[in-house]
Amino acid sequence: MWGRRRRGAGPSGSGAEELRARRREREAALRKARRQEQLVSKRLLREDTAAEEGGQDGAEIVPDPLSEDEVLELLRGVQRASEDRKRSLTRLRWALQNKETQQKFVRLDGSIRTLIGLFTSSLADMQMEAARCLHELSHSSDPAVAEACLPVTSYLLTYLSGHSIEFTELCLYTLGNLVVESKAVRKQLLPQGIIPVLASCIQSPHEAVLEGLGYVLSQLLQAKEAPTEIIPHTANAALLSLGALPALTSLLLDLASEIPQDAPEGLELLVCPVLRCLSNLLAEETDCEVQIQDERLLVALFLILQCFLQQHPFIVQECLWLLNNLTADKPFFCSTLLSLDLLPALLQLLPCSQMASVLVLTVLCNIAEKGPGYCQQLHQQPALPLLLPTLTLPNPEVVGQCLELLHLLFLHWPEAAADFVRQGGHRALEQHQSTPELQERARALLDMVGQPLGASAFSPCHATLSAFS
Questions:
Q1: Of all helices (H) and strands (E), which one includes residue 180?
Q2: Euclidean distance between CA atoms 47 and 327, whole angstroms
Q3: 331, 288 in Cβ contact below 8 A?
């Protein structure tokens, strides 16, 4: 998806050319899924073009549905040990692009069992064709089709350690499609050890494998049951112990370093899963920051922010979530953000959207919580002139977060309170004294700024602290 590709080992010769051709075709398809809500959609890998099956000018042609007798005949052809078996399997794979045919196929007794038998065979060409058939089934929007594929999940995991990049990639995207469709599939994959297996894929030097890994992880971590059933596996088991955070960080750094000025469509579909996986892992593991104390990560984040701000603003939200998790605990990234003079770029994101405003203010709160030195730098940068317009917004959530930030600034750096009054900020606070969800905090801040400048004026503040507890 990048103008230039990630450096590292990869296939060579004709195999490399075939891989590049398949990737170009996949990128064209992924460009159709560039809206935020489509990031959780399924993805389809097909090595053949529409022209091979009669398409014109690369147009996608969906085959007509087969009758039950025709589907049964194809299955019998696949089951027969004859020279025509490969041809029957290829015809089946083409026919399974039709939703109705998929449903008829999985209802046939022994259909999935037959595919699994070929998928696990020692014949490489038959194994690949069977994998493509299973991949077509995994792309179905019918939950019954996905659940019919449950028996294949353990084999898909086993083959992730295979020697073929193309085969491993196909298994990853098949797993990702099944994961997003069915909770039953996710429930089965966890005890089968999907997390340790995915962790081993992180060490792959091949970009195609890492892209597929990012897709599966993002689908797993976005599941409704992720906080209680999936994240504990990832945080406490093999992903962290085998270096998931440094690996994902390295991948993000590579991506940001190669970002072209005119980023092609589809690029966001690779960046987003990497950002989201890092954010989710950081949210669950308090000691993660120690593993990735690398100031280049912040530079990479702001490069990505700059690249996607106009065309794909949802990436801004993903970057800010990651920045929030990086700055929430230990001070390393807070200090780095200030020392690299990235605060002005962060403040410029305040007006982007409601969610962006809340997240920017949350990151600033993370910094201010670190104490007087940090608040002094926030005051000197300066942050107050940009915060004052935020106080006049009609959104209680944004204003509430701004009040939290002002409380921390005034508490740790009283000079900020005096400056706030000089700029007329107290008048903005007075407007919120009648807003039920904001009035207590607004009045507490008015009490703070109304007292004489000096440490003693801010030392007790029991009422003020309780208003923000």
A1: helix 165-181
A2: 43
A3: no
Q: How many CB atoms lie within 10 A of CB 38?
A: 12
Q: Which two tokens stand for residue 401?
A: 């977060």
pLDDT of 238-283, one tens digit each? 556 656 778 778 888 888 887 776 666 667 777 887 888 788 777 7
Q: What is the pLDDT of residues 73-123, one digit of tens each?
A: 989 998 887 778 888 899 999 999 999 999 999 999 999 999 999 999 888
**CB within 8 Å of 223: residues ≥ 6 apart:** 179, 180, 183, 186, 229, 230
Amino acid at 246: P
Q: Are 419 and 406 within 8 A, CB to CB?
A: no
∠ CA 378-379-383 to the nearest 5 degrees? 70
**Under 8 Å between Cβ of 284 and 234:** yes
Question: How far is the C-alpha of 436 from the C-alpha of 334, rounded, in Å?
Answer: 33
Contacts of 187 (CB under 8 A, 6+ apart): 229
Strands annotated E in 23-122: none
Whole-angstrom Cα distance, residue 21 to residue 48?
10
Helix axes 268-284, 296-308, angle to 10 degrees: 140
Beta-carbon contacts of 49 under 8 Å, excluding residues fewer than 6 positions away, are 25, 55, 58
For 409, what's the count of Cα atoms within 13 Å in the CB-facing half-sphere? 27
**8 A C-beta contact, residue 432 and residue 395:** no
∠ CA 221-223-229 to the nearest 5 degrees? 80
pLDDT tens string 343-390:
999 999 988 888 889 999 999 999 999 999 999 999 888 778 888 888
